[in-house]
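My convention is simple: the sequence line spells out the residues, with the fold written below as integer tokens. I include a record here:
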Amino acid sequence: MGVKVILERADRIVQCAEVPSADILAPHVRIYVINLDRSPERWERLRGQATQYGLSVTRIPAIDGSTIPESDRVDFQQRQFVYHNGRKLLAGEYGCYRSHLLALEQFVASGDKMAIIMEDDVELSHRLIPRALAAMDSVCGARLVKLVNHRLVGFKPLCETAEKDIVGRCMHGPQGSAACYIVNRKAAKKLLVSLKPMLLPYDVALERGWSTGVETFTTLENVADFSPFRADTTIGKRVHYRAAKRHFLLRVTAHWFRTCDQLRRWAYTVKAKPQSFVESAER
């Protein structure tokens, strides 16, 4: 029995170490692209890339927050948002939040085991799916791996994937961006419950694994690149964020929340134990 277990373990490690082609892996995960109706050129660019690389992409018609009156916003309370952020919500932020939840809902309804959810200012590539799946295989639990970030401060590496990407967590945050991530079905179901009501911008809320109950990780290097459309944000520019801020003294509650949240982030990262490739492969 001991010899049999050793052989089976060795076989699993060899299988994980092999790098399957994108053609083999592509059917196992679908890519959901969030795209506004008023941005057809972004969708056409991504659809062309999907055809080029033989990827299956599903368009999620994004919710345009500017067309929804404040009184019609669901799962949202302005006072609670201001308490946590020290400013008012931008219409684009509301649309972004609801659009990502819509993508999660469609993924769960599909019955698929895993999905990549991305915004339309990210580029597709032939290595996106293999690298994303390898990242998911390297960790365990109801999990989510962020594949794109704007900043990584105090990164703690936990394991190396079969694709040689480093997966870990960050001591400091927020890391910024929910532009591209891979999530499994169980985690998506948890997110659909834990992310309501909306208290924070979606990119901030998504990475708070200590709050959502989803084991959340990130790759050290971006697995996907941003497209030229990145500079033309549809959510809000810096001038819009500044205009929405309250006076410094009226943002005390937000500062207190961020301080407490930072302590929770530290604890969440510190308690994560580094894993060797062999250990992660055995899952």
In short: Residues 1-23, 277-283 have pLDDT under 50 and may be disordered. Strands lie at 30-35, 57-61, 114-119, 143-146, 153-160, 166-172, 180-184, 215-219.
